[in-house]
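Handout, section 4.2: multi-component inputs.
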Amino acid sequence: MNKKILLTCFEPFGGESINPSYEAVMNLSSPDGMELIKTVLPVEWGTSAEKLISIWEKTSPDAVIMTGLAGGADKIRIERVGINLCGAVKDNRGKYPSGEESPCETPIDRAMPVAFFSTFDYASILRGLRAENIPATYSFSAGTYICNYVLFSALAKNHKDKGRIPIGFIHVPYSEAQGKAVFMKQADITRAVGTAIINAFTGD
Ligand code: PCA
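Output:
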């Protein structure tokens, strides 16, 4: 039986016309023995996590791997922690967390702990990326924007469900198409996401 991987990326945000996480996910073919359920999430408080959870509940995946852009990063970042906080940052609709019009921080879920660790096999992912000469590092903060929001929401759902599946987030640098000083080639970003998926399961 193929393993079902729910693989998400984001639409562009922050004035950019592309998001290299989207390009990576759309260009990736399913690794052997795996079926990819590709989903593009909006860069919006609320709806991003709602869309993720709704597709998750419809498809019952064996792993949930989320990807997004970390502008300015010079390596692939393997996110180890999701924190229970929405930062005071406007989304693609111009809204702050909870739909507020003025800057405010807010917990993602007041009934949940401060943070959760990712459950994918981060060590195996790092080894896999380094074996392919793709610059990569562990990261202990996915920020307080939408990427952390969906990571925390996914880990909170897994906690509530008493689930045991690999869940985690891969942050990628700008690609060469974005004209920034610090970037990674899109081909390497795409390859990195494929490598992360293959190595996400512990003990396989
Ligand atoms: N990166 C942003 C949100 C969407 C994306 O690709 C983040 O790091 O939160």
